[in-house]
Amino acid sequence: MSTVDFLKAFFKNPMHTGAVAPSSKKLGRLMVKSAGVAQATSIVEFGVGTGVFTEEIHNTKTPEATFIALEINPKLFEITKKRCPEVVIYNDDACNVKEYLAKHNVMQCDCIVSGLPWAAFPEDLQKKILHAAVEVLKPGGIFVSFAYIHGTSLPRGKKFYQLLKHSFSEVKKSSIVWANVPPAFTYICKK
């Protein structure tokens, strides 16, 4: 998907796409490393977008690890299925993660890598998805998401940070990835 196509998807439905350009590989590497994907036996991805994180997760995880991903946008789902045909991706809402893990005989996962546009979501949707994430994470499990630096000053961006602090025992922020457009950082959250 070109940057032009990505922009079209953003303007068509910013609640589903939430970004003006695909994430950088540098941000993808940081997300995957922060989540501990290399040591995980069960991994979930929320919001595959164009597959930058998906590809990085697939290339980093052990062959034995269970990895499932969820993407609500049908076009992004198709793009990532073509980019990463060996990855199990479901075209559905992240809130339904428990159902899809059960299909793979997994009740709880080690980590969740989220590419969702949290600052674009209303508070009730943020809460609903975070509740689903916390429910399926193992004790000590890691939830990793990113935020654009400009989004942290928005009311929904601020609310998301507060929800993370309420939902997890530990919340850390990474340094800023200036190579991403727009610049971003990651939230690393421990259950």
Automatic annotation (TrEMBL):
Keywords: Methyltransferase, Transferase. SUPFAM superfamilies: S-adenosyl-L-methionine-dependent methyltransferases. It holds the Pfam family Methyltransf_25. InterPro entries: Methyltransf_25, SAM-dependent_MTases_sf. The keyword Methyltransferase applies. Residues 43-141 form the Methyltransferase domain. This is Methyltransferase. It comes from Uabimicrobium amorphum. The lineage of its organism: Bacteria, Pseudomonadati, Planctomycetota, Candidatus Uabimicrobiia, Candidatus Uabimicrobiales.
